[in-house]
Design a protein that fits this description.
single chain; 116 residues; mainly beta; N-terminal domain of TfIIb; SH3 type barrels; three-stranded antiparallel beta sheet; 1 helix; 11 strands; 7% helix
């Protein structure tokens, strides 16, 4: 039996078709083969903070823990509020560009901030 006719919920091979829906007699799950393709397509949520809130350009965020600044002896303290962030595509994970008072321009990873 092909994967298209297996139940996506319990992987049962006893699923049967009734008009346009597939039905699993073991778990009573119903699904449409056309609807599954749309449901399995990855949805781009954008950049999210540590709690899963979606960030946008111009948001304010709060740094959640002390972060060492590379190439300097200074530290960005946890609880520091950063205003007017800019989102960027970054391969190294630093997807937030910002200016921090007392430190200057720098890039942050979204996993270390929460939306203010």
């Amino acid at each position: 039996m092909t994967d298209a006719t297996k139940c996506p919920n319990c992987q049962s091979e006893h699923a049967y078709q009734d008009r346009g829906l597939w039905i699993c007699p073991e778990c009573a799950h119903e699904w449409s083969p056309a609807g599954d393709a749309a449901a399995q397509a990855p949805q781009e949520a954008g950049v999210c903070d540590a709690h899963g809130n979606v960030l946008t350009n111009g948001d304010s965020v709060i740094v959640m823990k002390d972060l060492k600044v590379k190439g300097s002896s200074s530290v960005v303290k946890g609880g520091t509020k950063v205003r007017n962030i800019r989102l960027q595509e970054a391969t190294d994970g630093h997807n937030i560009a910002c200016k921090i008072d007392g430190i200057g321009a720098m890039n942050l990873k979204s996993e270390f901030v929460k939306k203010a």
